[in-house]
Amino acid sequence: MALPAFRRIVHAAARQIGARVVDIIEPGVTPNFIAARINVGAQPCYVLCSHAGDWAFAKAIEPALAPLQFIDCPAFAEALQSLFGLLPLTRAELQAPFTGRLGLSDSDVRYWKPGTQGEALFNWWD
Asked: In sequence order, what are the residues at sequence separation of 6 or more whose Cβ sits closer than 8 angstroms to the Cβ of residue 124?
């Protein structure tokens, strides 16, 4: 997903639910996702969109704390779905054991050995 489209989607969904976009985090070589820090009421969370177009939510983004701690953000997920037809992955889906996925390099999977779907879809692999 292109950064301008990500910004537009996140800001529109935030307005829909009265959330505030605090920061947009652009990836360098890694990670393989764009992120936005948002505040939904008093609760901060991060909205993630991978290069492959997968959406999810995380509690924090710190490469040193990898893997990510995925969370659910129902209000924001509902806004993404109602406004754009996007269906973010749930915490349960992301914590499920890794079973493979089209679009992931076999050599990356063999080298990094992701344990969960979330580790494979949202990562700092180089």
From this structure: 30, 31, 32, 63, 66
